[in-house]
Amino acid sequence: QVQLVESGGGLVQPGGSLRLSCAASGNILSIYSMAWYRQAPGNQRELVARIISGGATDYADFVKGRFTISGDNGLNTVYLRMNSLKPEDAAVYYCNGYIRALGQSNIIYWGQGTQVTVSS
């Protein structure tokens, strides 16, 4: 089994910053990619940023220049640094991993989500 656990969400004022973390654990053989998604009430879940083993990254247009995704330890831990936060960035942020676990092929795993609130 593989678990993804997010942390770092909270309340921040507009213009402020937060750093989210996602730790992957379990019988992991390899991690192809990790990503952050978000979902606001009434909206579909959307991709925010992704990092692939080897370090390549890509971002949704609405966060380019403000958010940075990074990873440690072979992507077992990934971070999302969020700067210049806007009220429309408020959402539940989910960690997503495309991971190969012992005895399994690559499959997608999701964390439980962490709430980010941007309000004055």
Task: Provide a descriptive summary of the structure in words.
The chain is mostly beta strands and 120 residues long. The chain contains no helices and 11 strands. Strand 9 (91-101) and strand 10 (106-110) form a beta hairpin. The chain is elongated, with a radius of gyration of 14 Å. The mean pLDDT is 97.
List the helices and strands and how they pair.
Layout: E1 2-7, E2 10-12, E3 18-26, E4 28-39, E5 46-52, E6 57-59, E7 67-72, E8 77-82, E9 91-101, E10 106-110, E11 114-118
Parallel strand pairs: 2-11
Antiparallel strand pairs: 1-3, 3-8, 4-5, 4-9, 5-6, 7-8, 9-10, 9-11
Outline:
The protein is mainly beta and 120 residues long.
List the defining traits of the structure above.
mainly beta; 4-stranded antiparallel beta sheet
The CA-CA distance between the termini, in Å, is 40 Å
- Give the strand content: over 45%
State the secondary-structure class.
mainly beta
* Structural shape: elongated
Percent helix among the residues?
under 10%
Main sheet properties: 7 strands, mixed
User: Any low-confidence stretches, pLDDT <50, length ≥5?
Assistant: none
